[in-house]
Amino acid sequence: MVGFFIALLSGAFMSIQGVFNTQVTKSSTIWVANAFVQFTALLVCLGAWVFTDRSSFGALFKVQPKYMLLGGAIGAFITYTVIKAMEMLGPAKSVMLIVISQLIVAYLIELFGLFGVEKQPLEIRKLAGMGIAILGIIIFKWT
Question: What ranges do the domains of the chain cover?
Fold first, then answer.
């Protein structure tokens, strides 16, 4: 149950962050805003590390496969695409499309067992759920 609430909190934070970042780009540029976002995230993570963990950064060199270390670089493009989507579509439509995209890609990752995730069987009810979510976007867009 705790995971459920953490996921809801994550979604709320992502929506708020997207709006904040889009507003910041109005006073700067998208890459300056993105760099600031990533830099402040680094500071928060280092602060949290100092107060809670202090494990060695050397463990990062043991990560296999090495491409798994690209999460931060992908994060820069996530920030960029969220800002652009919110700027062009507004927060509600952007977040709906982002969430649907996340759902589809996450299901494909599970379905094909990509990136070390345990492979899951195809389930019609999950496809139906995605279809309903997509239908919800269509209804939201045209009403």
Answer: 1-89, 90-143
By CB atoms closer than 10 A (0-12, 13-18, 19+), residue 51 is exposed
Q: What are phi and psi of 7, to 5 degrees?
A: -65, -40
Q: Residues for the chain: how many in total?
A: 143
**Which residue bears the tokens 């649907």?**
100
- Other CB atoms within 10 A of residue 29 CB: 10
DSSP string across 66-113: GGGGGHHHHHHHHHHHHHHHHHHH-HHHHHHHHHHHHHHHHHHHHHHT
Among 68, 69, 80, 74, CA closest to 36: 80
The reply to whether the predicted model has a pTM over 0.90 is no
- The pLDDT tens digits of the residues spanning 30-53 come to 999 999 999 999 999 999 999 998
Count how many Cα atoms sit within 13 Å of the Cα of residue 75 in the half-sphere of its side chain: 14
